[in-house]
Amino acid sequence: TEPLLKVEGLKKYFPIKKGLLAREAGHVKAVDDVSFEVYEGETLGIVGESGCGKSTTGRMLMRLLDPTEGKVTFNGRVLTEASKEEMRKARREIQMVFQDPYASLNPRHTIGKILEEPLIVHGIGDAKERKKKVYELLEIVGLSSYHAKRYPHQFSGGQRQRIGIARALMTNPKLIIADEPVSALDVSIQSQVLNLMQDLQKDLKLTYIFIAHDLGVVRHISDRVGVMYLGKMVELASSEGLYDKPLHPYTKALLSAVPVPDPNFTREQIIIKGDIPSPSNPPSGCTFHTRCPFKMDVCTQVVPKLEEVESGHSVACHLYNGEMQQ
Ligand code: SF4
Ligand code: MG
């Protein structure tokens, strides 16, 4: 089957001035040659530390940001070649949910007006139909029709994220890109919102891209998970494959920090030192080599490619890809 979304060689380079006199032009490789596919009805988690390019990737998929290079195909349409008008239509079917719903909800508008807006933008329905849809969505996300008259500040963080989700659903999208949708919420509220998202996925046959910095959060919601480091995808596998048998040293390190509920299960503990290097001056070869306990000579020279090493499990690391076996 064809994937709903296909991403090929996606890159985003931001120009910067380097050096004391800023004579030398350079660029930050925020996203550097990322490829993946998303199938209808699944959830792809994308995980990594802040600055790894996961949000930039999400924004490029909707062309909120134009890629420097690469191709994005959604539902048979090449979005990276789409005109403004074609892109406007495509945005009915791809919606985003943001980390901070408060920042994305106009404080001077009622919830009813905020939810109605996407319908007006896309010319969907008359006033009566739009109102009906607003009430319907409020109920679906666990709020009530009387909330339509209230303003964003009258809601808790969890309720505001429900409103953000309702807004994303107004145009009956196929794909939701959720960028850290629960990161700003208390742990108890997080699971409520995650449960809601899972229920909605089943009921409305949604496909999710779920972006997070915490592997613990994406574990239960994701069918597959991609791990990003300094603008590259370094590992991509089924959720079980990744958690049971992580291959990339960076993934192993991220998982070392996730508590294991089963006392009989012990995980290889890998502690990485140091901070993420500056993306404006990334290390040569494997960009993880400055922090990797398994670094070999080849790692500083050759960029490892993301290669499938087991069925459905890809990794970009010289420990696995045979570069060393010559
Ligand atoms: Fe570590 Fe080398 Fe693998 Fe990079 S390629 S993660 S430096 S072993
Ligand atoms: Mg981000």
TrEMBL record:
ABC transporter domain residues: 5-255
Keyword annotations: ATP-binding, Nucleotide-binding, Transport
Gene3D superfamilies (UniProt xref): P-loop containing nucleotide triphosphate hydrolases
Keyword Lipid metabolism: no
Biological-process GO terms, alphabetical: peptide transport; transmembrane transport
Membership in a protein family: Belongs to the ABC transporter superfamily.
Full protein name: Dipeptide ABC transporter ATP-binding protein
Source organism (scientific name): Paenisporosarcina cavernae
